[in-house]
Structures are given as structure tokens and as C-alpha cells.
Automatic annotation (TrEMBL):
This is Adenosylmethionine-8-amino-7-oxononanoate aminotransferase. It comes from Thalassolituus maritimus. GO terms for cellular component: cytoplasm. It comes from the Bacteria. The lineage of its organism: Bacteria, Pseudomonadati, Pseudomonadota, Gammaproteobacteria, Oceanospirillales. Its cofactor is pyridoxal 5'-phosphate. It is an enzyme of class 2 (transferase). The record marks 21 as: Participates in the substrate recognition with KAPA and in a stacking interaction with the adenine ring of SAM. GO terms for molecular function: adenosylmethionine-8-amino-7-oxononanoate transaminase activity; pyridoxal phosphate binding. The modification N6-(pyridoxal phosphate)lysine is found at residue 279.
Amino acid sequence: MSTHFIQPDLNYDREHVWHPYSSMTDPGYTWPVVSASGVRLKLQDGRELIDGMSSWWCTVHGYNHPVLNAALNEQAERMSHVMFGGLTHGPAIELARRLVALTPDGLEKVFIADSGSVSVEVAIKMAIQYQHARGETTRTRLLALERGYHGDTLGAMSVCDPKRGMHHLFSGILPEQFFVPAPQTRFEEEWNPDDIAPLRESLEKNHKSIAALILEPVVQGAGGMRFYHPEYLRQARALCDEFGVLLIADEIATGFGRSGKLFACEYAGISPDIMCVGKAITGGYMTLAATLATTEVAETISRGEAGCFMHGPTFMANPLACRVACASLDLLMENNWKEQVSGIEQGLKHGLSRASELEGVADVRVLGAIGVIELKDPVDVKRLQPACVDRGIWVRPFAHNFYVMPPYIMRDGDLAYLTSNMVGALAQTLGE
């Protein structure tokens, strides 16, 4: 069997390969990557790009990490995959042990899923099965926030923003959920008590139909890269308890340190009933996610009509992914993620601040290892992204947002280069 390196064939790619959120009639340009190491992507033409996206927020330790490589190879030699129905294995057990120890108190049962979207599907099904097992058979709908984003599968799409989101084309076939306005009090502002009123009103009116409230704690990601006040989350927790509604925290993007806390729920000092994690869990090596639940949720479901939780993916708890995830989480703690993220936060604040001087910029904000330049008008991606590549950086803007989530290992010099060239590319694109 040949083991030679496969060179990217751009012509075939353009004709046959469908990329995320792309058109097959007007596919746009893609840059072929042949290798990656640390925080750099090497292109087929020899150029190197500093990666500001952590490959959609997951490669927190950078690329080609020797510790993660060793974990992957060691596990591959022992067992790449085995079904999880009726069988178990050490990497899954150890991953569950780490997740229970790291996540907020009370989350003690771990369902290991395939991807972030699937973990949201699992959470939704858990909430509905829980309410059914309690005899609350009318509680079959979810309550979600406008400007929220939770994934691209059908159930996950149904709890994404129905107006501004990417999924309005499917509105006729998606389950109909309840929505309330997104929190308006910004992270750093004084809390406005009126902000929670729409949530209370919806719960008062609709709670007998609602199984759970799902939200992204403190940071709304793909819905606009918005940072909201932790008091909203604190009061949402209290309202869920008052009305018998479960709280699902989608920490897929924010989990494992990205917001400046290990989990964004910690800003409010609360623990959800169900939590979704993914993205950074394997350090970007392969797809994996998990849905954690309280003992109350898990045992109530298990005593219900079905006698079990009705979900079981073929590749659930894949040993390769679980083993790498264990190594990634160990590395996270050994590398002092808090110090790493704090350093990136300071570098982003300093480096992106100059963007506020540009006429086309509406806002510049930073939280943890997340930096956002929000534009007054939608980003001209076809101009801005090539300008970034020409300057040796990889940043993928969307809607009004030109943002970065760098790997935690990024050094000060690379971070300064990344931010200065972001501002330069933006100024060039805006004609300023």
C-alpha cells in the first residue's frame, strides 16, 4: 500500500469537493495546506500563515504536538475503535473522569458523542426524555435566545436564531421552539435588571410546554461574537429552577478556557443541568464531544418509560479520540491555560485597539482568547480573506465580524504580527 504524501489537486477540489457554507457554482478560492506545526499552516506554494482561528476554535495546543501525536499513535497500535454498546475501554473511562473533575459541580454523568452538533441533539433529547419521565408530557419544546447558534443538524438548527441565523430556509421542517431576545447588557457594563424580563415573561407564559432553556454562557459565538453580562446567566439559572425547566449550557466554543474561565458558566458561579462540550476537547486532532448531565437528570431518564436514554452513535466514545482528549486535557492543565489565555487577552486588547480608529469599524472587544472587530457593514470576505493570506495570516471573517481565537500556545511576537496585519488588511479592504 502506498504511503506517499497526497498533493492537493485544486482542480478536482473545485469541481467535486463541497466545502462548508460554500457554493458549487461559485465556490470561491481555497488555499491548499500541506502541513501544519505549532501555530503555522504551510501552503502548497511554500508560504506559511499564522493561524488565528485555531481551526474553528479547537487546536488550542497548536498543530503537530508531540504529546498528542504520541497518544494517538500509542492508541492506534492498541485499538483504533470498538463499539461502545455492551463494551467499554480505558480511554473513555479516563476521559469521563477528567470531564467530571473539570466541569462545574453536579455534572456527574457523561455521554460521549461524535461532534458538537450531536452533543446538542443529545442534550435536547435528554431534556425531553427527562420531562416525559416526570410525567410532564406536554414539555416537548425548547426555549432559546435570539442570536444563538448551536449547530447545523436539525434539532440543533431549531434552537438557533430563527431570524438572523443561517437556518431560516429550513423553518418549515424544523421543530418550533420558543425564543426570547438576546441579552443586551454587555459583559463589562453595569447590569440592567430589565434585561431578564423577557425570559421571565416567556417562562411564566409557556413553562408547561418547555423542557429546557438552552444558551451559550456569556459568549454568543456564531450568532455575532457577543459578550453578555454574567448576571443574565445567574438569573436564568434561578428562573429555570422556579419553573421546573432544565438549563442546558452549550460550552462547545467557550469550554476549556477560551473565555478566560475554564468554563464560561464560572463567570456566573452556576452549574447547568446539562452541558455540551466539544471543539477543543481533543486539541483539534479529531472530532469528539460530550454531553454531561446531573445524576437527577440521568436517573430520572433511566426510570422512565424507555428504561434507557435513546441515543447511541456508531462511533460513540471512539478510543482514538478519547485517548487524545485525555492527553489534551492533561496538557491544558500542565501548560497553565489560565496564564496562556490571560497573555493572549492582553495581546489582543493591545493589538486590535488600533482598529477602533477605522471609519468602518463599529466595535472592538476582547474576552479571554477571543478578539472581535465588528464592522458597520457586512465583511467583504472575497477581498478581506485574500488580503490576510497575502500578509501571512489565516483569519476567516463572517457577517459583520472580523475575529480571532488563536491557539493558546501563540507567542507574543506572533500574536503582535497577527493583530497588526489584521488591522492592516482591514484598512486596505476598507480603503482607509
